[in-house]
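2024-03-11 09:14:02 INFO worker-7 job=invfold-0412 stage=load source=structure_tokens
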């Protein structure tokens, strides 16, 4: 999972003048860059991996069945209806 740590805002003129630097930064640091035109946000530059992750998150959040499973899992954890990892690993080792 990618965490967005920094979001920079800069002008379109600055991005035009230093596009390669901004692309390298977005790729290497997963930083997002908001590009402004006339002082207003006009676009966002982000890495392809971050875009794919965002799209996948949207797809999961849009799937009612998946979200129902997530809510049920959260409820099970809240009830304490879980199996400790050590028990799972022992069971797997016994069945191997």
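2024-03-11 09:14:09 INFO worker-7 stage=emit residues=96
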């Amino acid at each position: 999972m990618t965490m967005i740590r920094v979001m920079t805002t800069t002008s379109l003129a600055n991005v035009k003048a230093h596009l390669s630097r901004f692309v390298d930064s977005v790729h290497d640091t997963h930083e997002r860059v908001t590009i402004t035109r006339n002082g207003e946000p006009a676009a966002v530059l982000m890495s392809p991996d971050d875009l794919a992750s965002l799209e996948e998150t949207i797809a999961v959040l849009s799937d009612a069945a998946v979200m129902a499973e997530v809510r049920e899992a959260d409820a099970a954890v809240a009830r304490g209806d879980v199996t400790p990892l050590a028990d799972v690993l022992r069971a797997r080792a016994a069945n191997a």
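2024-03-11 09:14:09 INFO worker-7 stage=report msg="The chain has a mean pLDDT of 93."
2024-03-11 09:14:10 INFO worker-7 job finished
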